[in-house]
Amino acid sequence: MLKNSKPISISKLITKISHQRIENSRNVLFLNLLVYALIAGAELTIGAADHSTALIADGQNNLTGIVSVIALIVGLTFSKRPSDDFHLEGHWQFESLAVFLAGLGMFLVGLVCVWEGITRTLAFFDGNYTAPLKGQAAYMAAISGISMLTLCWFNHFIAQKTQSSSLAASARDFLSDALTSTGTMLAIIGASWFGIHWIDPVAALLLGCFIIWNGCQILSTSAEKLSNGFSPQLRSEIIEKILTVSGVLDVMFVDGRYSGNNIIIEAEITLANDDSLAKSYRICKSIEQILQASLPVLYCCIQVKPAPKSASSHPQAIVWKPL
After folding, report:
1. From the candidate CATH numbers 3.30.70.1350, 3.40.50.620, 3.90.650.10, 3.40.50.1820, the one assigned to the domain spanning 232-317
2. 186 contact partners, CB below 8 Å, separation of at least 6
């Protein structure tokens, strides 16, 4: 029975950078978890004391945010594990799986909000509705909305800086929670201070639709990575970079797939017919280094195809045209 005696030649630098990115993301997620716990606990407590069903519902929504953050932390923790006999490339895909689950959770929460909005709207037209008895809960909803919006910006900023899909998903989650809290605040003010009771169900319906849309964006991005989807635009950029390497006559095929946030490149290139094995290897390593300079490429799997002798003797005649 064959057994791999040597690991795949994965870039140690990219692996080190990825581990640092994951550690930074986990630290931010622990901060998110703390804020979620404090806000959810305060909303449930104040909502029960003030008899505010809207604020209690918002607190329950933030409890689902705690579950999403825990899923992301667990996924990032598993993704840091080193490669083994079953996962030669490492466990990076656990991050994409965690992001997918977080998006799925957000999608389901949106469906619940839409359902509650529809049922409460129908109840309003039937003359049966439950309005908050006190308006003090609006202040707690405002504090929640401001806190969530601040963390949304912070997570988005760090996600852009580190290219972390986990923090990008968390930023979207915070944005939906911030809008939900804002809608809760407006519903409480409208129902308790101005007697406009229809704001509550309509706000729940609209916010539910937004949460569903947000969740679908996360699901779409993570599903593309999990299903080995790859951007055609990025593929074209990679082909252009490969063609800049000295000795490469043509690029026959390029594809890529994600392992977490890292990329694995597969390509077939054409080299001169008389190039030695050692020279061909150096060209392949040059391609890998050029790609790793601008992309988080774990490693490249490059197949070399010898050019016809006429093409090898006249490399200047080779002109690559994108399809």
Report:
1. 3.30.70.1350
2. 199, 203
DSSP 321: -
pLDDT, position 206: 79
Beta strand ranges found along the chain (DSSP E): 250-259, 262-271, 297-306
Separation of CA 23 from chain center? 16
Going from N- to C-terminal start, the domains of the chain cover 12-226, 232-317
Looking at every residue in the chain, the average pLDDT score rounds to 82
Please tell me the distance from the alpha carbon of residue 95 to that of residue 266, in angstroms, as a whole number. Answer: 22
pLDDT in tens, 219-229: 998 898 888 88
Burial of 152 (0-12, 13-18, 19+ CB in 10 A): buried
For the stretch 131-160, pLDDT in tens is 544 567 778 888 888 998 999 999 999 888
Long-range contacts of 144-147 (CB under 8 A, 24+ apart): 144/39, 144/42, 144/43, 144/58, 144/62, 144/177, 144/181, 144/184, 145/178, 145/179, 145/181, 145/182, 145/184, 145/185, 146/178, 147/35, 147/39
Residues 320 and 240 sit within 8 Å (Cβ to Cβ): no
Task: Report the percent of the chain where pLDDT is more than 90.
Answer: 23
Phi, psi of 320 (to 5 degrees): -90, 135
CB atoms within 10 A of CB 50: 20
Spatial distance between the Cα atoms of 151 and 149, rounded to a whole number of angstroms: 5
> Which CATH number is 12-226 given?
1.20.1510.10
